[in-house]
Hints:
Pfam families: CARDB. This is CARDB domain-containing protein. The strands form nine sheets. The chain has a seven-stranded mixed sheet with strand order 26-25-27-33-32-29-30. A six-stranded antiparallel sheet has the order 10-9-11-12-16-15, with no helix packed on it. It contains twelve helices and 41 strands. By secondary structure, the protein is of the alpha+beta class. β18, α3 and β19 form a beta-alpha-beta unit. It is globular and about 100 Å long. The longest helix is centred in the last third of the chain and has 23 residues. 21% of the residues lie in helices and 34% in strands. Among the domains are: 115 residues, Immunoglobulin-like (Sandwich), CATH 2.60.40; 97 residues, Immunoglobulin-like, CATH 2.60.40; 154 residues, Neutral Protease, domain 2 (Orthogonal Bundle); 118 residues, Immunoglobulin-like, CATH 2.60.40.
Amino acid sequence: MRARVAVVFFVVLLVGSLSAPVVGLGAGGGSSGSSAVAESGSIETASIGSASSSASTASAASSASGATLHRTTTLRQLPDQPGAFEAEFSFRIPDAVTELNVLLTADATVQSAKGFEAGDEKGTFRWTGKTDEPTLRVTLPANRTAVGRTATAATDSSDSISSAASNASPSSPATPATSRDGYSFVETGEWGIVQVPGGFSYRYTAPVGVEETVRVDGPGTTGGDIAVFGPVTAYERAVDDGSGTIRLVVPDAADLREDPEAIFDELEAARTRLDVGAASDEVFFVAAPTEADWGPEGVQYGRADAWVAADAELSDPGSAWLHEYVHVRQGYARSSVGTTSETDWLVEGQADYHAATVALERGLVDFADVREYLAAGERSPYDTDVLAESDSWTDDRTPYVKGRLVYAELDRQLRLATDGDRTLEDVFRRLNAREEPVTEDALLAALEDAGGPEVRAAAEKYTRTKATPEMWDRDAHWEAFDQPVAEFEYGIDADGIRVAGEPWSAWRRGSGENESFGSTEAQNGERVIAVPAGESVRIPATIANTGDRNGTADATLQVDGDVVDYREQRLAAGSTTTANLTWTPTKLGTYDLRIGEEKLTAVVVDDSSVQVTDLTLDPETAAPGDPITATATVEATGDGPGATLLEFRTSEGATEVPVAVAAGDTVTVDRELRFDSPARYEVAVGQQSAVVTVENRSRPPAELEEVPGFGTPAAIAALVALLAVAHVRSLRSRHP
């Protein structure tokens, strides 16, 4: 920590030593006043969910800016302690972070801690600030029992193993991920499938990137949210022309029923078929050994990790493989958004329904199978339960069994009401774009917007009362589901990108030293933009109706798989249009942006990503009111691209000019200035400054007045104050 104070003091000292600084020039200031940077004294709070990053993917924020919070989570199996495992968290904390808390379950047992102390609540550990590389090592119970979509610690952590319980019943051929008694996560001493623990929250005074790594120390692997202990065989398939990956991990203790290639075929097909947004580039599935006393047949946990019983079949209308994959695509169901008690049924009913429709379209099952599967919701005990009143459910499978039937009926009615133009996938996509919990009112409003008041009325009837739809026959099914639909293609108009309302440059992904970032010399590869944190990014989406039917297009902007904005637009066959989609990034890092099949990489940076190396004024002498061109030379710092709102400052105020610089490149930025009164005016950009003389031709230069500002006395006073602050910090570091 002493070294950190010394570095800060050195930077400030350099700034304080500049001659005649302009009023408002800040320490280290590439730009001040950006909304992404907290004003002096203000603090913001950010939270990171449990192991939300993939195991091997790291944010590039550290290359674009030094303000990066690093966390490495190392998991270890404890063969001598079946039912438990060890987790070690190692952090590297940047200066901008002022507080950090690790959030664990109350049953965590601390084995060692460096730089952490117990927090106010059990299971919370607070960073002491005495080291910027704190560590925390704990043991945790691995065995968790299923309670709806959550998991709780098992009361019996013994290593006894019994045969897997079946979820099948005469009225429901399969109901994956039900809340039957049994484990949702387990560790046997020989193998284990466990949750990756350790959410954390932090407070910061400037934008901070987050870089996370999760690894298993010993035999096993992880997707970042679920970890597997013990020897495994790993399979992998590239999807989306190599931009995405599906991983399948089979523990040695598992006997996989289906061929791995067949599983990949169906997961990839579901990935393509479900046009609902929230598509993660990395998907991680585990085939769970069936010898454990599992409650559900599968569990999806975290962003895109899931396990499925190794004996699960693909040729099943409720296939656990497809059911859990639908959960991967339910961005709205994550804890950051979520549902309410009135819409809890939607998560499972939707997953069951879409799993069945994908299986039907893929030829894994026929309509008779799907009809029987959906019709189970008509029978007791589900038929008298009210979906929007969870306390009325007489069976824990009600949201699955009655939920999928109601969801299917609403999809059928929506298709009929719009002649096939709108489906529940469109509503699904809209829910994924929400930033607030999906309430009953929000669901009903989305249905009404898509299909009109009659569809809303049907939803109210089947979710708020005991009314149950009657399953339809084959002819009625094809009438609704076999209608022609409009076909659209979506893309990105890179030339129309705006940041903070200004035109913005996009580069092609480079090669060599610039391989990971934008380069002005590269001609091929994906496009890259660098944007300042906190600024609005507008990306034009190109839309083309390529079919022979009029229809409603849904342009969707996804950021790292999450839907952040969308536009619905009616478009005639053969027509094209453009819709502007927006996103405002708040955290440093590298993000994948997608519209349709086109991708764009956005590197979100702070002011330190650029520096001003030169500033010229032309002319250097002018008459009052004459235009003066200030030209700043700007280059990217570090290995990545840079961006900021560049301030041109004078004693009369400041104006901002957005600027982006490709990796290894230099650009010039011009700003026209005018001064009305004769005087010598100092202009500053970043840490560069220059002086222009404004004079009346009738007055000699010697009579010009200095503009009020930071003269030499002010600079000396500032330096004395900084020395005093540094001395106090030094004393504190010696006496914590």
